[in-house]
Predict the 3D structure of the following.
Amino acid sequence: MSASLRIILALAALSLTAVFAALWLGPTPLENPFASDEATRTIVWDIRLPRALTAWFVGAALGLAGAALQGLLRNPLADAGVLGLSGFAALGAVIAFAFGFGAFAPALSVLFALGAALIVVTLGWAARGPASLALIGVGLSSFAGGLIALALNLAPNPGALADLVNWTLGSVEARSYEHVALVGILFFVGAVFIFVAARGLQALTLGEESAAAIGANIMRTRTLVVLGAAACTGGATAVAGIIGFVGIAAPHFVRAVAGHDPARLLLPSALAGGTMLVCADIAVRLLPTDTELKLGVAAALIGGPVFALIAARLASRGGDA
Amino acid sequence: MSALLELDKVSVRLRATHALKGVSLTVRAGEIIALLGPNGAGKTTLMRASLGLVPVEGARALGGADPAKLTNRERALRVAYLPQRPQSIWPISVVALVALGRFAHGAAPDRLSATDQAAVDAAIEACGLNNLRVRGMDEISGGEKARAHLARALAQHAPLLMLDEPTAGLDPAQSLAVADILRAHAADGGAVVFSTHDIALAASAAHRVVLMHEGRIWAEGEPEKALTRDALEVVYGRPGQLERIGDAFAAIFR
């Protein structure tokens, strides 16, 4: 069995364990999650399982999008959140909700994420060093934040404002199997695009010019990754709001065991991202707060410092020339 | 035997200036050609024009085809090109880097056919990297990195090798090792075009030198005939001469 297959199997086992733990652990203690009484069945199968699966797919989609964007832009600080894809996806959903056509929220999410991905990949293509790219993303993210505020400001139905603001904070609370299906389908669509681009990402290890010189079609790789990352981010954001840093942290941790080959990072990053978000959601549910801590808030609280550490380490290594 | 590369009165305009002016050059199998000249003389532009990466006036043919009309893959099967200071952004292993040379043949580094594997092994052997196969690209020296990238270019199995300053920053022994690798490629029926500032190395390794000056070919031919005192002084702006010492050369400038 090859090393990469062992890593994939181990991470898949971790994912399963985390989902199982999510069924068992929660604010209502359960002795046996597979008991057949009505209350247990409702809690486990109608509440906890769809919530855990939503968390897993959201994490997997963000982890995969992060790994693919990092490979494309050759930058370990790239991720849907940092680059502004998540912000724009949320903007799309907010516009849909605020102006009364909520059914189109997922479509608008994907479309807006696609727009942001096109902008950041075009602007960031020639960026020298990880920090300059991150700065472009910071600009886009703040712009998305401003536009979200504008959309909320102009929303015809102010009663929905609190709900919308709450939603953008990022959560997988009270999600149904419809949400699971939505994020699941978009994750698989995005994964198809991204896995087709895997060889191109390997070639880009040499930089753009040399990747072209060994025969890679750069435009094709860019297009596939932009489409794939937009589908993943749009799906994740449409069901869960903005959840940051999974896309940076998952590939970062996976590199420690799976090495740096950008193609071999893809599947492990998806599995790790799913596992991480399910675990974070368990933690959020177990915290004895009056109002449940939002998953997106928790991710930012943990992920922000991790991001800063990775950036500082890169800078000290001279990776930001 | 048809030429691997043909340039006929090729000019390149970059912004307002002519980076290349009416350059003609033919490269045939078995030849090693060194491009000489100061920075900005047009060596890199000549390579990029040959590869079809910049638009030109004049005629060019790479393996009989217009390089600007080739796909990246078709071009990669005709010429293996190493830019100045090739990089490996992620610290992948030496063997994974060399395996990237098989890209145009359809191989992914973790799914090599027997042919791919043989090409990778031969290139690693030729570049003396056998004991560094599994080392990360961030764990080896500059000379070893240069040889790893050269091995990647060799693994591409393209008839023409085009190398932009392959010995830049290398110590004398590493530079000679690179020259040996180029000779072996030419002896196998391939051809090499490389640029360098090491005039002595060019004179000992190349069958022909092309001395460039302000976008033109100032002198061309066998090293001892082309690199005259006059030519060196005009092109480099300092009095210089090429001295043969046994089967090696020294270039002296004052």
